[in-house]
Write a structure and sequence with these properties.
Layout (H helix, E strand, L loop, with lengths): L1 E6 L2 H11 L6 E6 L9 E2 L7 H11 L2 E4 L2 H5 L2 H7 L3 E3 L7 H4 L1 H10 L7 E4 L2 H11 L3 E5 L8 E4 L2 H13 L10 E5 L5 E8 L4 E3 L4 E2 L2 E3 L3 E4 L4 E4 L6 H21 L6 E10 L2 E8 L7 H6 L5 H9 L14 E9 L22 E5 L2 E4 L2 E4 L3 E9 L2 H12 L7 E2 L7
Parallel strand pairs: 1-2, 1-4, 2-3, 4-5
Antiparallel strand pairs: 6-9, 7-8, 7-9, 10-11, 10-16, 12-15, 13-14, 15-18, 16-17, 18-22, 18-23, 19-22, 20-21
Helix pairs in contact: 7-8
The protein binds adenosine monophosphate and glycine.
Length: about 425
């Protein structure tokens, strides 16, 4: 079978690595891919958001397409592929609204009593500001649309919240994504990510995981796409898992069916374990990055078997198996990320990394013979262990082998 993966980050590298182990795949493509993915798949130079070019390529070259990133899902790439008879993994454009519109997601949660922070949505900056003044701080301001994980301001004081409204609605920092804002209740508690496979009928959670969104060690600095992750999370007990299945996962899948927008693919539940129980912070309509890197290292079942079972709506017939133990991924980033950073620096030391440590490439490219930096998050160095400590120790052993100019990483992932 010929399979195409759409995307170019560490997540797509992890997906390609898992797929490359499937005996049923005769040819693996990744578009556009990156310097690391090029070693295990043929990279095709098509932008992940170029729906027409992707559909055209897939129609003649692929039997199955896996759409990994949020943007092409929100633009309807899965619908476009299915319309020309190409089997594709991922939610439809309408189902992907769970991620691409926070107002849609919050509306679903309100209507179906799925636990989340109380909120109001606004299209007028004045009304948003009046609401903030009425509620007081701490309070959370969110751009409605996609904003590369940066459209959320957790404001500890009122002025910060008011400034966030100006930034999103008046300065249009995130373009149209800020036409509408959500103002929501500030919640407290540890955060856990649950990724689940679903065919719209059955929902099968993967190993629980914890992301590290802040840039610097000790949860300091600005929010990023994620600086590291590990799985499973010791916080996510079987009791909490039961509550989440009953109050959050199952009701969300049922709600999407009732709304006429059945969700098929990977659904991402960003959860906060608050003093009053688990609540949804956000949904994503896809695998998380970097959570996917450690999670797929723990997967025993052939990933293609799972993708096909989801697409063909027979997930209930498949038993998904996981390895014991833990996995940990540490992101090595370009100095300056998530703000301005330079790229094009030579990456060295990858040849010194032991075989049991895997280096997922996020922002790299080949420049002649050299591998150079080509993004904010550059590498996701991932290892397994029988304990979390062991997995983290191994991952950091790998991190200490690599270097490039201005590189930085957090020293507390999985610790
Ligand atoms: P999001 O992009 O929605 O995942 O938000 C980014 C981060 O902001 C989350 O991982 C949380 O740490 C924080 N956050 C979002 N919503 C809330 C909330 N209602 N209360 C407290 N923190 C929040
Ligand atoms: N790691 C957070 C995300 O993928 O959105």
């Amino acid at each position: 079978m010929k399979v195409l993966v759409v995307g170019s980050g560490g997540r797509e590298h992890a997906i390609c690595l898992a797929l490359s182990k499937s005996p049923r795949i005769s040819k693996l493509y990744c578009a556009p891919g990156n310097g690391g993915i090029a070693k295990i798949a043929e990279c095709v130079n098509i932008s992940a958001t170029d729906i027409d070019a992707m559909v055209k390529f897939a129609k003649t070259n692929a039997d199955f397409v896996m759409v990994a990133p949020d943007d092409p899902l929100a633009l309807g790439m899965v619908d476009a592929l299915e319309a020309v008879g190409v089997r594709a993994f991922g939610p439809s454009k309408n189902a992907a609204k769970l991620e691409s519109s926070k107002a849609f997601a919050k509306g679903i949660m309100k209507k179906y009593n799925i636990p989340t922070a109380a909120y109001e949505a606004f299209t007028s900056p004045d009304a948003a500001k009046a609401y903030i003044k009425k509620q007081g701080a701490p309070i959370v301001v969110k751009a409605d649309g996609l904003a590369l994980g940066k459209g959320v301001v957790v404001a500890m004081d009122e002025q910060t919240a008011l400034n966030a409204v100006d930034l999103m609605m008046c300065d249009r920092k995130f373009g149209d994504s800020g036409n509408k804002v959500i103002i929501e209740e500030y919640m407290t508690g540890p955060e856990v990510t649950i990724l689940a496979f679903t065919d719209g009928k059955t929902v099968v959670p993967m190993h629980s995981s914890q992301d590290h969104k802040r840039a610097f060690t000790g949860d300091l600095g600005p929010n990023t796409g994620g600086m590291g992750a590990f799985c499973p999370s010791p916080l996510y007990t079987p009791e909490i898992a039961d509550i989440c299945m009953k109050e959050i996962f199952r009701p969300t899948i049922d709600a999407m069916n009732k709304e006429g927008t059945p969700f098929k693919g990977v659904i991402y539940f960003g959860l906060m374990l608050t003093p009053s129980g688990p609540r949804v912070i956000e949904y994503n309509a896809r695998f998380g990055d970097p959570e996917t890197q450690p999670i797929l290292m723990q997967l025993e079942t052939d990933l293609l078997d799972i993708f096909e079972a989801v697409t063909d709506e027979r997930l209930d017939k498949l038993q998904i198996k996981w390895h014991d133990g833990y996995a940990c991924c540490v992101v090595v980033a370009s100095g300056g990320y998530p703000d301005k950073y330079e790229t094009g620096f030579k990456i060295s030391g990858l040849d010194k990394i032991p075989d049991d440590i895997f280096v997922f490439h996020a922002g790299t490219k080949l420049s002649g013979e050299d591998l150079v930096t080509n993004g904010g998050r550059v590498l996701g160095i991932t290892a397994r262990g029988s304990t979390l400590e062991e997995a983290a120790l191994r991952a950091y052993r790998g991190v200490n082998c690599v270097s490039f100019k201005n590189a930085y990483f957090r020293t507390d992932i999985g610790r």
